[in-house]
Amino acid sequence: MKRIISVISAVLLTAGLHFPVAYATDIPEVSARAAVVISADTGEIIYSKNCEEKLPMASTTKIMTALLCIESGNLDEPFVVDSKAIHVEGSSMGLQEGDIVTKYALCCGMLLPSGNDAANAAAVKIAGSNERFAEIMNARAQQMGLSKTYFVTPSGLEGDGHGSSAYDMAVLSSHALRNKVFRDICSCENIKLEFGNPPYTRWLRNTNKLLSLYGGTYGVKTGFTDEAGRCLVSACERGDLNLICVTLNDRNDWDDHMNMYDYAFERVHTIHPELPEDLSIPLAGSDKDYIKVRPSALPEPVTVLEADEKKLTYTVISPLFIYAPVKTGDELGELSIRYDGNEIRRIPLNASEDAEYSDISEKAGRGTINNIISKLRKLFS
Hints:
The chain has two domains: 34-267, 3-Layer(aba) Sandwich (Beta-lactamase); 279-380, Peptidoglycan synthesis regulatory factor (PBP3), Domain 2 (Sandwich). Helix content is 28%, strand content 27%. The chain is built from ten helices and 17 strands. A six-stranded mixed beta sheet has the order 14-16-17-12-11-15, with no helix packed on it. It has a five-stranded antiparallel beta sheet with strand order 2-1-9-8-7, with helices on both faces.
């Protein structure tokens, strides 16, 4: 009998049959109204529950507000907060009339203690009013492809139609976390700042307890209102793996996030993009038709649900022509890396050689136009 079993086993193995992988963690039971875990790199869904349903998302709204504030620039320039903007109910970073702050301090006040005063002060500073700032928020949401998202306030205090889906909030966070300033702020459990009139030193504490509860967590934002319930957006790394988790209206959000991460990390993989060789960009004003370029850095590993390197594609993004002279190291374009059609990385491309200027006026009528037409044909063929 043992011999028969051995023979059957050998036949099954040589037939190349595959059996389901046994995971230690079962599908989690999540108490949230809506939840999702995605790859922070590709946006692939690892776990979901009603993740496309539009719901109020409370102060997780401030992810967009803080990102836009950071992108507006001049983060360290002091100014006096608008007196009307800071008079708002709910959580606060402690702003008072006449306080001198910076945009950086307001971003910290939004992302750590979830200050509604900070969100409003930033909105008025950037756009002149909350209403105008909401228009900017919605334009950016549309640019990101957030089809279930609509902003009415910069703080997340509910307005008519204000809401998002768990999946949209995860995608928004993946964009925000690519900004180093945003990521550095939201990963802090505490931060020391100076603001006031005159400014003085104080500490702000992060409301995101997951930073200390679950190893590898580095963000992102908590939220709560009576209508929205408890909302939480988090991000977590384990080795080269990188995930984002969102729960909306969840009475047990800390445990649910930890359980979803345990589940998701067992099911994802990493792939390492191998950059194409011999990259070049069309060149004008030189004896050379093309200038060689190289990426400024190696791409980081990519978290994926199924490790299929065939889904990786690479595209050079640059002006139609680069004009000489060019020096080695000059930034001339970017390399877009996509996985299954979705852009996951952009890496600057630098010249790997010099190209001197050459007077092409003598070539006019003797091939210059033909050369340009030839280059255009190659680009669009």
